[in-house]
# Entry
Amino acid sequence: MSLPAKLWLKALTVTVTSSNSAQFSSFTQTVQQKNPSVKTLLSIGGGGNDTIADTFASMASQPSRRKSFIDSSINLARSYNFHGIDLDWEYPDTTTHMTNFGTLLTELRAAVANESQTSGNTELLLAAAVFRSADYYTINYPIESISNSLDWINVMAYDFYGSAWNSSRDRTGPPAPLYNATASQVNGDAGITSWVEAGLGADKIVLGLPFYGYAWRLLNADEHGLFAPADGPADGPAIRTDGSINYKDLLDFISQNGTQTVYNATVVTNYCYSGTTWIGYDDTQSISAKVSYAKQKGLLGYFSWQVSGDDNNWALSQTGW
# Structure
């Protein structure tokens, strides 16, 4: 479980805004009420924001900045009773950034071990959110540093296709396919395999599951399969400008519009369509297949982005339980 922390650009340290302090203070206690064994991690960073990525790059480039970041991260995790730290740098996009990321992880692990010895507390867990594959568009992740420094990685095996992106706005697509539909298609299995082949143990890999989908506007309502001609994001009351829609909201769309639903077991994806609106997503069938895949491959586990997108009955969450 995690909550986002604000990575301040000016100070290059991690802080929590006063408006979020109460929520951070009660988070671990709240989630442990029904299951005291649950561990919570403080997640630092995020996607969809170049400023965050640039801040990570700047921080990781100099020893003094890394130390300031590491010290403040550990202090913050301890002060709010988290059990660990999760780094979400989206993404180290140069060879230098990847090298610096590896150095950051090595130094963070050393600092966490030292803090544990000094304080007598259990050593903080360390994790990181990473790209779908072991390289970010041919720029390799520092596998040795990751393997030696992190307890696990959270592989973001989603956002392969999106209706607002130049690369995929003109064709519908499965946002998080587990397998190929075409020879050139990116998929979750290929990404997981790349991490294992790069040398990371399967027991350090956690598979990401999306609790949302993407909506396209079809050019022709009669062409409504995978990779059908489209023209960017569809419109709708719960559809965001980037075409994304939470699982719970797309269920409302399905029930209110006489929508046709399809599960493709070959690709492992769901999609639905009504008129010229087409939505690709993961429903319980896809989630179940991916959970089985994670177990079969000996992965450490699986995570969702994000639980708040689930429906009122927690259908996706319970499928993964």
Notes: Residues 61 and 293 are 38 Å apart (CA to CA). The first helix runs from residue 18 to 31. The mean pLDDT is 94. The first strand starts at residue 2 and ends at 7.
